[in-house]
Design goal:
CATH superfamily: Leucine Aminopeptidase, subunit E, domain 1
Number of domains: 1
Number of helices: 5
CATH class: Alpha Beta
Strand content: 15-25%
Distance between the termini: 19 Å
Number of strands: 6
Strand order of the largest sheet: 1-6-5-2-4-3
Length: about 170
């Protein structure tokens, strides 16, 4: 049975799922928006783990579309899965790169043993992608991911009514 896929308006740092996805930047050093909120709520252990990942696995930074898991520090989840979305303002406009963020995050979630995952609207904030496009790409990527059959829940956790409406529309479209 495939996972339930839903969208809610909430604070992703309060989600009690196994893993939350962080819309990270390539440095994994925290930043603004969702990334900053997750780092602030998780506390210093998250940054320490991110620095270790940078030293050992991604010394040049995490590439766009890739995903890597760390512990969650003080968050109520077990893992944070960091993914770097494409930045529209920098000319990174390939929907396949955006879809890779969602697909690779699900793959990483399954790798660490997560059964429930919460996603933000990767790239819909300061990276400039239109919410409706992110919703369409994200929902399609999640629904077509083979990992979905091994999960119980995938939740899109949105920070605005507009994004929630975009994701609800994408979830009900066929």
């Amino acid at each position: 049975m495939a996972a339930r896929v839903e969208a809610v308006r909430a604070d992703i740092t309060q989600e009690t799922v196994d893993a939350i996805v962080n819309a990270a930047n390539s440095t994994l050093a925290g930043g603004g928006g969702v990334d900053g909120a997750i780092h602030a709520a998780a506390g210093p252990r998250l940054l320490e783990e991110c620095r270790r990942v940078r030293r050992t696995a991604y010394p040049g930074g995490l590439p766009v579309g890739y995903a890597v898991a760390t512990g969650a520090g003080n968050l109520p989840c077990r893992w944070v899965i960091h993914t770097v979305g494409p930045n529209w303002h920098r000319g990174q406009r390939d929907e396949a790169d955006l879809a890779a963020c969602f697909a690779n995050s699900l793959r990483e979630a399954l790798r660490v043993g997560a059964r429930s995952v919460a996603f933000p609207a990767v790239s819909a904030g300061v990276y400039g992608w239109e919410g409706a496009t992110v919703a369409r790409v994200a929902v399609a990527a999640v629904r077509s991911a083979p990992e979905l059959a091994h999960l119980d829940l995938v939740r899109f956790v949105l920070f605005s009514d507009r994004l929630l409406a975009d994701f609800q529309a994408a979830l009900t479209a066929d």
